[in-house]
Amino acid sequence: MGSTEGVSAARIEPSADVDERAEIGPGSTVWHLAQVREHARIGADCIVGRGAYVGPGVRIGDRVKLQNHALVYEPAVVEDGVFVGPAAVLTNDLYPRSVDVDGRLKRGDDWHARGVTLREGCSIGGRAVLVAGVTVGRWALVAAGAVVHRDVPDFALVAGVPARRIKWVGRAGEPLEDVGDGRWRCPRTGEQYVEKDGLLAEAAER
């Protein structure tokens, strides 16, 4: 690993492979055998687990957890407070092929990478797969093993193959209680939410 000012305040385990052109924020830890590629930017107080991969130019916010062997392919954007479970994969190619139609090995210029976007506070369960280009909304929850092929709304809990919404969750991550008239309540915090036209938003009052 190169020694740069951008990673000097972070903890980088000796077996991790962090490109000298990457930026790692203060208070962050990159664990054993993880790889952080060139021009990736990781914010403050993040955890990059053992064997995780962060692709070139990926943008990761503050207080993000990438669990062991999570794979975040470029040009993904991961906002603040996101959790990515073990062995989850954020893909970037809708039509993957190793070779082109002439049988030649494809190179970077032969295809267009489409990144996954993870909005603030959302969580991705272990071994979930997110198809290139999808967005997971704020505080949403993707169940373990799900395959997400379309955008996930804010506060939605999605599960299955392909993933479908099965419940609403609050910022605390627990399923919400239906209190009638399109209103939902978090059993842990008491926070109120309002459902309209198939979408959920925080109520004005708490």
TrEMBL record:
It comes from the Bacteria. The keyword Coiled coil does not apply. Keywords: Repeat, Transferase. Pfam families: Hexapep, Hexapep_2. InterPro entries: Hexapep (IPR001451), Hexapep_transf_CS (IPR018357), Trans_hexapeptide_repeat (IPR050179), Trimer_LpxA-like_sf (IPR011004). PANTHER family: ACETYLTRANSFERASE. This is Acetyltransferase-like isoleucine patch superfamily enzyme. It comes from Kitasatospora paracochleata.
